[in-house]
Design goal:
Elements: E1 2-6, E2 9-14, H1 22-28, H2 30-40, E3 42-45, H3 55-64, E4 66-67, E5 79-81, E6 84-86, E7 96-99, E8 111-118, E9 122-123, E10 128-130, H4 131-137, H5 140-149, E11 151-157, H6 165-169, H7 174-183, E12 187-191, E13 194-201, E14 204-206, E15 213-215, H8 219-222, H9 229-239, E16 246-250, H10 258-271, E17 282-286, E18 290-294, E19 297-298, E20 302-309
Parallel strand pairs: 2-3
Antiparallel strand pairs: 1-2, 3-17, 4-20, 5-6, 6-20, 7-18, 8-17, 8-20, 9-19, 10-18, 11-13, 11-16, 12-13, 14-15
Helix pairs in contact: 4-10
Pfam families: TauD
GO molecular function, one term: oxidoreductase activity
Protein name: TauD/TfdA-like domain-containing protein
Length: 312
Amino acid sequence: MDLLEHNGTHLVRVTPRHGGDGPGWVAANLDGLRSAMLDHAAVMVKSLDLGEQDELAGLAELIGGKTLEYNERSTPRSRVKGNVYTSTEYPADQSIPQHNESAYSSNWPHNLYLYCAKAAATGGETPVADSGAVLDRLPRDLVARFEEHGVLYTRTYRTGMGLSWQEGFQTDDKAYVDRYCAEHDIESEWDGDVLRTRQRRPAVVEHPITGRRVWFNQAHLFHVHALPEAVREGLLEICGEDGLPRNAYLGDGAPITPEELTAIQGAYEATILAERWEDGDLIMIDNLLTTHGRRPFTGDRKVLVSMTQREG
């Protein structure tokens, strides 16, 4: 076992001897794997070599509890089988910034399990960055404002611009969407077939087991200034600020300044740690304690994901 570290971010790297029975090795080492995730937030198991892709969900449930469907979506993904999905389907030449999975939702996963079915020819790493280390690097006045007010996420679902509401909520039933929003503290408003939502979520949370305070939100991803300037200006001209596919504010509706976004993005960049994927590798992540992203790549790349919540 190797422990890698960079500016407060840790990744445990394990190369097991399992004789071709990766799931059996995991079952025999459950306590150690769970402890390593809590202690260090991210664990890479080398050459686990699952025989079937849908084995990932069973492995995830064995370690972390009930697997989740990917609902209330913010990015495009495809279901492989059951609760196993492709990782976010963005163009290969683009990076995906660091983020805690579904931090905008009240139904976020506790753990993520990412399995490399095919490694890219170059690039394509899944970097991790420790959420507590990110919090520690942010200015105190910024943290105080976010901790007091939380984050307000706004979304406009329309066909042909970002995700449609049918894709986002995985249904064609408006009544189901209304019920889901009411049950998950999401304000919703229909304008014909266009859906607008608003939801307030915390920016800083405490891990329920370790007690560690962490930066846990997607303000920097949802905010319109996260987009390239040309894309941002085009969307603002077409949609106006109130009709953007997604945006973020402080929880009281006050704007998040470009300077604050720069500080947040800088804290992530300073703490990133990345290991190259190889076929058959598995990365297990505590979704509160660490973020993940994706680097650009060349060639074919196939990384699958299953997400879990602990019981109780």
